[in-house]
Amino acid sequence: MFDNLSEKLDKALHVLKGHGQITEINVAETLKEVRRALLDADVNFKIAKDFTNRVKEKALGQDVLTTLQPGQLMVKIVKDELTELMGGDAEGIDLSGNPSIILMSGLQGSGKTTFSGKLANFLQSKKSKKPLLVACDVYRPAAIDQLHIVGEQIGVEVYSDRENNDPVAIAKAGIAHAKNLGCNVVIIDTAGRLAVDEQMMAEIANIHKAIQPQETLFVVDAMTGQDAVNTAKAFNDVLNFDGVILTKLDGDTRGGAAISIKSVVNKPIKFIGTGEKMEAIDVFHPSRMADRILG
Ligand code: GDP
């Protein structure tokens, strides 16, 4: 479909060069390939168009027309631009609080509970933190069970209260519990619905206001493509979240959602999920993602 865009670009421009001068038209043709690759990778149309316009300006400014290896230069320009668009260097998370409170948000099925476990495991094993997981889904008992299973798997305590149907009260009690246990990180897993709705947004906004987390993270399934952008925008409007977690990147998606989300909400992508296991978590690296999108 979009096998190795880098090679394609290189060939397209190189062959042309052998037959005479490369023109602006050739560059435009090549940029069409770039745009097609971005669309195939599920990048929003307007974002892909703006992107290729910027690349065109840079390419013409950098003498692509006269260089000996125009393809390679084009690939470099495209890659650098993609990397910059996705956020420069990988950003960490704020662990300065005592305890640091991390609020997870996102739709049901996005991978929130799984990621809460992965993050707790990562912070415990890589950052020597003592995390507590808090189950704030008051609608689905199975979600509470799932968090307990995850906690057992990684050896992290889980706070829940099945008798209580007020998520704000549970979150607060969870934080108090963490203080009693001497935990320095509290990860709060919240309820999600299958689509954005007012009640869910009001609920998470209330939790957010009541506990004032150091980090509010928005979890999104990379496979959901364009929908991911609308969901990200809806959550950001309400929570003004600090970062994005892109899950299910072990699937066959190119990860274009990373570009679209970053362009629309302008928040850093902090981690990616690459599988169902607790170890399948990676810090987000924009340049690696650029490679993946370019193929
Ligand atoms: P939640 O409803 O947002 O809490 O989502 P869950 O954590 O329950 O995840 C929904 C499904 O996606 C589960 O079957 C998870 O095992 C799966 N899942 C979560 N993260 C990943 C990931 O990075 N890769 C894959 N392949 N599956 C994932």
TrEMBL record:
Keywords: Cytoplasm, GTP-binding, Hydrolase, Nucleotide-binding, Ribonucleoprotein, RNA-binding, Signal recognition particle
Principal EC category: hydrolase
A GO cellular-component term linked to this record: signal recognition particle
EC id: 3.6.5.4
Extent of the signal sequence: none
Entry keyword GTP-binding: yes
Annotated GO MF terms: 7S RNA binding; GTP binding; GTPase activity
Cell location: Cytoplasm
Occurrences of domain SRP54-type proteins GTP-binding (ranges): 268-281
Principal subcellular localisation of the protein: cytoplasm
Family the UniProt entry places it in: Belongs to the GTP-binding SRP family. SRP54 subfamily.
Domains as described in the record: Composed of three domains: the N-terminal N domain, which is responsible for interactions with the ribosome, the central G domain, which binds GTP, and the C-terminal M domain, which binds the RNA and the signal sequence of the RNC.
Subunit architecture: Part of the signal recognition particle protein translocation system, which is composed of SRP and FtsY.
Name of the protein: Signal recognition particle protein
Organism: Flagellimonas aequoris
Lineage, uppermost ranks: Bacteria, Pseudomonadati, Bacteroidota, Flavobacteriia, Flavobacteriales
